[in-house]
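Hi there,

I know you've been waiting on this one. I reran it after we fixed the sequence typo, so this is the corrected version. Both the input and the resulting structure follow.
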Amino acid sequence: MESKKFSLTAATISTADFLRKPFRKFQGIPGVETLDGKNLFVVWYANDEPGEGPGNYVILARSSDNALSWREVLHIVPPDGESRVYDPVIWFDPLGRLWLFWAQCHSTYLWDSFDGKAGVWAAVCNDPSGEELKWSVPRRIADGIMMNKPTVLKDQSWALPVSVWALRPDLLVPETVPQAFPNVLFSRDNGETFAWRRGPDVPERTFDEHMIIEQSDGRLRLFVRTGYGIGSAVSTPDGGEWQDIGDSGLGGPNSRFAVRRLRSGRLCLINHQMPHRLPQEKLTSCRENLTAWLSDDDGASWYGRMLIDGRKDVSYPDFAEAGDGFIYLVHDHDRTGCGEILLSRFKEDDIAAGRIVSPGAYCRMVVSALADR
């Protein structure tokens, strides 16, 4: 039997002009970060072939004028022709450093998206306000994939949502079988070291893409992508076990969602508004009606329901809150068609009202599109 291959060599971080944009046939899966709203960073990944597979590379774009203009300032390119770089995450840590995470795996044909091990890599920019961004040497911090931002806990430790996909058990290697859960990677020294903790066995989970919040009682709650929408689990007070594992009741079309705690203490959720629970074979066509909600009670109830984008083929939201109270949200639209990366800006008042009411708020500004090639 041929031994399995893995992508264990760091991808190349390039700040040089990138010449492949005219050849792009796919782009999507974005993330966003900002400190002040004026300086914005958006990350996503693309391919010169129409989909997810070998050759996927990551793009970081920057705006210094309140999103009026954008330029691509960094590209992360796979180390060889049988690898892909994908699922990027961008995040400001409490020290003001800009972290860029991504996944790598061996991939030999289109849609071969997982080699049974994968790996989460990270690079850090200590001065994200500088004219030229300088990055640390990439390092591999865990097996698996991380699709959403870390959470800073009350004790100032970090909780990273890292998973090894369990949907293809036949691809797993012995060392990753015990990790095939939506796990938590903790750092208590500002990212110098990381400690792994097994996550909950949430029924019918697919690509996990989980997010972590700390409840008012100090317990951790995980929200996990599942076949029925969004699953959930809560840690015991001592953090030793997981309980209340099951359907969160939030629904969704088996797709990425976004949930984070805002500075006000409220939770903000971005998900697809679903009319009712649908059979599994119909869910993939329901990536539409991307909507925002608020919660004042740790997610026990939600209100607002502000529609962000009611079109079909809209997906993969990520958001960040600026110091001025604006929430910056990115999502993608029609990844192999127009290939739009879209930015929205709004406040809690807009979500609570169910519509845009704040001066300067907007929805669906184009950051990048395949039509711009």
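Quick highlight: The mean pLDDT is 92.

Best,
R. S.
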